[in-house]
Specification:
about 80% helix, about 200 residues, 8 helices
Amino acid sequence: MSRRDALRRLLTVTVPVIVVNAAVQAVTVLPGTTPGLGMGFVLLTLVSFVSFSASAALLAAASLPALSAPGRRRLLLPVATWAAFAALVLAVALSSLVSPVLLPIVATVALVIAPGLASGAPRPRSIARPFAATPLRAALLTIVSLLVTALGLVVALLVGFFIAGPWSALLTWLVLGGLAAALLHAWARLWARAAPRE
């Protein structure tokens, strides 16, 4: 498969996932949904969480060359993989509540291990194989990931400050989704390059 075909296959999953997740996130901040313990707000929070978890798993799975090859349709991930991505998203969400400085670090760790999770890596050690196979590239991509996630945080704060409501959420999640997809794709390529040849 040529690079152009691989990119086309990647984009046929990536763009709809980003747009649908951004739309869902925008709907969850419609007027009248104030934070609290009411059933409506809890339900919207759950919908937001499920949408974000599913989009993260689908973007990671679509980014892996082996998973998006023509002979393999592997976007239907095992339940354990979905649960692992939900745990990753929960860790990122909780880190954002603890400290804005912690968010880029936890998000970068999630980006590093996401391709391994999506591929069904058998051991936790195999998830970090890009650092063993190509340590300089992995270190540089880690720095880039930290900088891009920090920049994404600043952009999200500025968009939220100047634009309010659902339009802010839509724009924020489109930008963050695009940045996350690009970083996931870079980590997936590095992870696939470090994979043992079968």
